[in-house]
Amino acid sequence: MSAILLDDEVPIEAVRWLYFRRSGGVSTWKPFCGYDSLRLEIAYRERCKGSTDPVHDKITVRGEMFEVDMESSLCIPIYWFGKKRSPHNKRKTWCSTQVIRAVWFQMINWLPLDARLSEVIEYEHRTYAIPKLKEVTKKGHKPIHKYQSNNHSIKWMPDGTIYLVTKSAEPFGKVKLHGGLSSVPISRGYNRPAETSDKPPPITHLCFVVHGIGQQLASIRHECAKIRKTCQKVAEKLYPKLS
Questions:
Q1: Name one GO molecular function term (predicted).
Q2: pTM for the model
Q3: Confidence tier at 14 by pLDDT (50, 70, 90)
């Protein structure tokens, strides 16, 4: 049984922050690297303690090209304004993405559960499940604790396994699961602990991209990403010892 299940407070490294991303028509939650997630969680906990230090209001992330506004829970680009893709698009901040603090995850592809449901599960776990798990003396097949609502139920098993039983994709937030899943194992804490060493390498060179006057930001970013990937492949091929 994981020690995280018995802790009253989830360890900082077990919490994972994620940002919502749309790419190629697919929407999903993408985790921040361990370094960014740790800094976001530290800022979050300091703010919960009542800290008014402005250093905890905005945290730079994603290679210091974005920052997370802790008040609005948005990840915002630093070096560009995020203009509209189309004059007919009413969304003013299309480059800004939603950010979520996740404690509970479904273990199929480690996507976070809906924030409201996670709060309910965490309350049930701390209040009822932890005391019962500490008193378990033998394994069995009957749940030691249950939580029931209209659309789903949670079952805590004696061995520490926890199941979410649902008929809808609601608990999985904006990401829909396919295949008619009815029973999903869930985890308190992410599958990879956040570490300070998990971060992008330091920037050693700057590459300035000159683009046409009519070129849009999305295509510029795409071409820059292609340059990075190509340079990385060439470096790995010609200088394998550097990696």
A1: phospholipase activity
A2: 0.79
A3: very high
